[in-house]
Write a structure and sequence with these properties.
Helices cover 29% and strands 17% of the residues. The protein has 7 helices and 6 strands.
Length: 197
């Protein structure tokens, strides 16, 4: 891994610091078994009423769907995602119903819950030696049409997955950014009592 500016102030598991979002991938394929392991990790995420509103649509780089999936990204993202091993679109169901009921109502937490599933997928990928890079640089209208996504589902993001490659394959401007980023100090986002900005 590249030299990292990351520092921790508490005894967090190293897995959280090891996970980062590179753009340089090495074009190696991802076996279906490994991808299924990532999805299995994601399914253990907590969700409101255990509704599990997430959906994952994916394409392997060597599949017939690859060019369709890649073409739904904005051009900047296509330029580096083309080297990933798989591309996943994460969706969330905006409607929910109590177990055994057909009375669907708007879900307050669908995006929150899908985000939890994505986080577990990303951590499992790190554990298996893969890297993930989530992005919102997607033509969402085109993705909805091309992937036949029903209106009730929100397309949250796309995620590139693969083995890290040599950053020299990236444009020069991106090579300098190809290092794990640091994080804000805890005091900037967690405090007791009322909201203060």
């Amino acid at each position: 891994m590249a030299t990292s500016p990351r520092t921790v102030t508490r005894a967090v598991d190293p897995l959280f610091v090891e996970r980062w979002s590179p753009r340089a991938f090495d074009r190696s394929p991802i076996p279906q078994g490994d991808l299924d392991t990532l999805f299995d990790a994601a399914r253990w995420a907590p969700s409101a009423f255990n509704y599990q509103p997430w959906r994952f649509l994916y394409a392997h780089r060597d599949s017939t769907d690859w060019s369709r999936f890649l073409g739904l990204l904005l051009p900047f993202n296509q330029s580096w995602v083309q080297h990933a091993g798989a591309l996943v679109y994460i969706l969330s169901d905006t409607l929910t119903a109590a177990p055994g009921s057909d009375d669907f109502k708007p879900s307050h937490s669908h995006s929150f819950d899908a985000g939890a599933a994505w986080a577990l997928l990303a951590l499992q990928a790190t554990r298996l030696g893969y890297h993930t890079h989530a992005m919102s640089g997607v033509d969402f209208d085109a993705a909805r049409a091309e992937l036949a996504v029903p209106d009730r589902f929100r397309i949250e993001a796309a995620v590139a997955i693969g083995r890290m490659g040599d950053k020299s394959a990236l444009p020069e401007a991106l090579q300098a950014r190809e290092v794990p980023s640091d994080r804000k100090d805890i005091a900037t986002f967690a405090r007791p009592g009322n909201f203060v900005d």
